[in-house]
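Need residues for this backbone.
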């Protein structure tokens, strides 16, 4: 297999597999307590965000291999299943919403497995928009300011200069007008 040429603007950082798996474990652990409705909403949104970023990375990795490569085909199937799960809405009631969040978490774990299997320590090539979005996401899930919760357990939406800068980079890469250079 020929090595892909990677420019600085196409190369994106690695997915933080540890953080993704840790978040998924909060929903999948046998001894996990049933989350409150507010916590469940936050965890579901977190799983959705993880999937939105992991899917294109895993697909980019899988695209490096021939079409008849079994691990690559399995990774594409997992990405497709994750996309389908992203499009589904949970039924009413806490048990159905927990089951929905757990299905999203299982897709996060599956994509982590495929990422580890396919990456082999090589850089992942994404378009600049996706790379900028991944930079922003990786910052926000580790930043104390970005993850601060208010008294009700909801994100406090505190201002973060680093997140604002990364968001500007993302908007420029996405071609959104009204962004200062």
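Answer:
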């Amino acid at each position: 297999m020929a090595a892909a040429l990677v420019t600085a603007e196409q190369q994106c950082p690695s997915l933080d597999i540890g953080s993704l798996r840790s978040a998924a474990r909060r929903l999948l652990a046998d001894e996990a307590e049933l989350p409150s409705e507010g916590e469940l909403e936050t965890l579901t949104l977190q799983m959705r965000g993880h999937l939105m970023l992991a899917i294109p990375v895993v697909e980019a990795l899988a695209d490096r291999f021939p079409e008849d490569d079994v691990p690559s085909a399995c990774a594409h199937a997992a990405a497709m299943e994750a996309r389908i799960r992203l499009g589904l809405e949970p039924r009413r009631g806490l048990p159905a919403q927990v089951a929905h969040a757990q299905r999203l978490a299982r897709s996060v774990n599956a994509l982590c497995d495929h990422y580890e299997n396919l990456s082999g320590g090589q850089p992942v090539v994404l378009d600049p928009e996706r790379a900028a979005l991944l930079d922003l996401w990786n910052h926000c899930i580790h930043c104390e300011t970005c993850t601060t919760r208010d008294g009700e357990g909801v994100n406090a939406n505190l201002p973060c200069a680093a997140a604002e800068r990364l968001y500007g980079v993302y908007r420029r890469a996405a071609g959104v007008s009204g962004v200062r250079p």
